[in-house]
Amino acid sequence: MFRRLARLFKINRRLRRENENVLRVKLRTDQLHAARTRFAMQVLTVLFGAAVVLFLGWRGVDWAVREFVTENPAFATKTIDLQTEGVLTVEALRKWAVVRVGENLMSLDLARIKRDLELVPLIQSAAVERVLPDTLRIRVTERVPVAQVAVLRPSAGGRYTTVIHLLDATGFVMLPPDRTMVADPTALQIDWLPELRGVNDVDLKLGRQVESPQVRAALRLLTHFERSAMFGRADIRRVDVSGLEVLAVTTSTGGEVAFGSNRDFDAQLRRWRAVQDIATQRGKVLSTLDVSISQNLPARWVEASSLPAPPAKPAKPAPYRRKNA
User: Fold this and answer.
1) DSSP per residue over 182-205, as a string?
2) CATH number of the domain that 217 lies in?
3) For the chain, what is the domain count?
4) Closest listed residue to residue 238, CA positions, set 226, 257, 251, 220
5) Which residues constitute the domain of residue 66?
6) pLDDT tens for each residue of 66-82
7) Would the CA dihedral through 296, 299, 303, 304 be positive or negative?
8) Both 109 and 48 in a single domain?
9) Both 108 and 217 in a single domain?
10) Is the pTM of this model over 0.85?
11) Same-domain pairing of 177 and 286
12) Model confidence over 11-64: pLDDT tens digits?
């Protein structure tokens, strides 16, 4: 009996210790949970307070920007200083820029204005800047055509009409400006531009650069020609680009000069000048000449008196005139 009571006593004591341990663990768990809850509430309180402060700060900054900058009458645009060295009118440029007097200068999207202007094929680049407190300054650089291409396009009634495409020195394709875009009617006179023949119509995409190697070579030839000693002594009227490695040039006197499209144009132009000087000394005019080779140049000339006077060359518009001409 005594042993049984002792055993029961031990069991009861062990149970009490286990219960006490369970109570202590539960107490620690409840305390930890409460601590975590208090910490989470503190974090949420701080985050909410920060959000409120940020919101109020943002609204305050937004109000200040609108009140003192973007809606401030002191920054209303009074002058649109728009200039170009080309042929386009200020009215046309202002229309493409989509800006008006009275708009808030600080709220204007300068990047958008620049992008809209440069999307016009006739415009090469545009610079836009604010001049505080009330002036918007725009400087436009227009594309300068160096050649023209006549393309037949279908029109009403099953007929075809000739559409002139202009190319600048980089091969960028554009159409001539409309009468409403220019102040000087002479800007629409493009007869002085050399004509490129043999151009594939597929290569002519408005607002894109021509990819044809022969067309690009012809444009480089025209650029080198305007900087050469032959400029002013001869006039290139046509360049045939249908050959694989040869550019066939026709002058205003009807002479034909063959250039190698993959050779040094400056050297070939110097050969042309040397032969031209000899012909002039002898009172003759070149009929045919091949400058694509460096020696024993095949040439043929005729008496200058036997040829009719070449047609008068239309004057170039001033913006497109050679700088030292």
Assistant:
1) BSSGGGG--TTSPEEES--GGG--
2) 3.40.50
3) 3
4) 251
5) 1-71
6) 544 445 566 688 889 99
7) negative
8) no
9) no
10) no
11) yes
12) 666 656 655 555 565 556 767 677 778 777 877 787 777 777 776 666 655 554
* Percent of the chain with pLDDT strictly greater than 70: 77
Q: 81 pairs with which residues across the strands? A: 137
CA atoms within 13 A on the CB side of 250: 12
Q: Coil, helix or strand for 141? A: strand
| Tally of residues, the chain | 325
Q: Which three-class secondary structure state does DSSP give residue 124?
A: strand
| 150 occurs within a structural domain | no
Contacts of residue 215, Cβ cutoff 8 Å, sequence gap at least 6: 167, 171, 196, 199, 203, 241
**pLDDT tens digits, 182-210:** 988 777 888 889 999 999 988 999 999 99
Q: Give residue for tokens 């002898």.
A: 282
Domain assignment present for residue 12? The answer is yes
Q: Which of 268, 279, 282 is nearest to 229 (CA)?
A: 268
Domain boundary residue, one of 71, 87, 122: 71
Same domain, 282 and 299: yes
Alpha-carbon distances, residue 111 vs 53, 114, 277, 286 (angstroms): 33, 5, 53, 53
Please name every residue paired with 129 in a beta bridge, in sequence order, or none if there are none. Answer: 137
Question: Rounded to 10 degrees, what is the CA torsion of 191, 194, 198, 204?
Answer: -80
Q: Which of 148, 120, 291, 264 is nearest to 215 (CA)?
A: 148
What CATH number did the domain enclosing 126 receive? Answer: 3.10.20.310
- List alpha helices for the chain, DSSP H: 2-65, 90-97, 110-118, 213-226, 265-281
79 and 135 Cβ atoms separated by less than 8 Å:
yes
